[in-house]
Amino acid sequence: MTNSFRTLDDVDVKGKRVLLRVDLNVPMEQGRVTDTTRLERVAPTITEIAGKGGKAILLAHFGRPKGRDAKDSLRPVATELAKVLGRPVAFADDCIGDAAEKAVAAMKDGDILCLENTRFHKEEEKNDPAFVAELAKLGDIWVNDAFSAAHRAHASTEGLGHKLPGYAGRTMQAELEALNKALEAPTKPVIAIIGGAKVSTKIDLLENLVSKVDALVIGGGMANTFLHAQGVNVGKSLAEKDLAATALRILDKAKAANCTIILPVDATVAFHFAANAPSHAYGLDAIPAEGMILDVGPQSVERVRSAIDDAATLVWNGPLGAFELSPFDRGTVVAAKHAAERTKTGKLVSVAGGGDTVAALNQAGVAGDFSYVSTAGGAFLEWMEGKPLPGVEVLRAK
Ligand code: AMP
């Protein structure tokens, strides 16, 4: 897949005005950036373009403003980015029009300029052709380095690719290469671990995965829906009982596709949804009527470990239990540590993504040991659902 995308290897950026779409959507409190992870991720592409004598003109959205709104200005983010890069980042108060055009005209080769929040214009999300044309005026080429926004066909994430020659930035390229190794052209057997709260948010994802992977572990609250559908009494556990037919359909589809489904065989049950609530492991035939399944049980964890041992590639989204509440993070932590160990010894390619998943892997202290951890929430899920991502499709070499 990745080979068919144009990258920075396919263009000489020297002297060119490079419109570079990045993800600057960092967490902020009282006007201060509280986590610079995303800035560190985009730094290599910016440094490379500037280092090769290109003019790096950064385009990004921030938050969900309805029109211009000072609290969603990218100015403080640009200041923080300059610290991460260790070099100056100029700022223009608008991403189109006079302010932007003057700032671009003043750039020298190797300079970096950040334009104001693209979403200050409602035309950004509408992918409005006149707005795209205004943006396109500012650049000679377009580089998309924002995988996390690639599931949206907005002006700066997709529209520009129809107006200017488009290339994947290094962060986008790394993401596409990792995803390619995980599902498109993986080393088999492939296992997926899918957890999280609800089946209803992950139906498309489950349906796509059963036809692609050799084994699928279903954990978390969503496993309860499957267990209920199979006739298990899940007590007061979180379960979407109205989705029993959907769950059975997914199980049938898995069977037809020769995908082994690994559901919990026991459960860790508590009587309150609270940290350190007293809990016990129960077999599936003995879940107390007043009990809540808050994690997969010890035998289930062993099954997941051995399923990971059987796999060469792992794709993971969603925790196996209510991991925010100790000790109900146990299943997730044990499985994550095991996957990390296998990865470190070169026996497993492991790719994980999604907001809670990243938090859970950090909690287990192993995010750095996975082959790749995607911080892109929505885009990662849509990719797992097998949907084409507009911001990626437009980079495909024609
Ligand atoms: P998601 O965003 O769909 O990946 O869901 C993540 C959320 O699912 C986390 O907040 C977990 O606490 C929650 N979760 C996972 N397992 C359970 C469970 N057995 N009961 C209740 N919530 C759960």
TrEMBL record:
* Pathway linked to the protein: Carbohydrate degradation; glycolysis; pyruvate from D-glyceraldehyde 3-phosphate: step 2/5
* Reaction(s) catalysed by this chain's protein: (2R)-3-phosphoglycerate + ATP = (2R)-3-phospho-glyceroyl phosphate + ADP
Citing just one GO molecular function, the answer is: ADP binding
Q: Quote a single Gene Ontology cellular component term.
A: cytosol
Nucleus as a keyword? no
Keywords attached to this Swiss-Prot or TrEMBL record, sorted alphabetically, are: ATP-binding, Cytoplasm, Glycolysis, Kinase, Nucleotide-binding, Transferase
Known EC number: 2.7.2.3
- Asked whether the keyword Transferase is assigned, the reply is yes
Entry's InterPro entries?
A: Phosphoglycerate_kinase, Phosphoglycerate_kinase_CS, Phosphoglycerate_kinase_N, Phosphoglycerate_kinase_sf
Write out the residues that bind ATP: 202, 324, 354-357
Q: Which family does it belong to?
A: Belongs to the phosphoglycerate kinase family.
Protein name according to UniProt: Phosphoglycerate kinase
Species of origin: Nitrobacter hamburgensis (strain DSM 10229 / NCIMB 13809 / X14)
Which gene does this sequence derive from? pgk
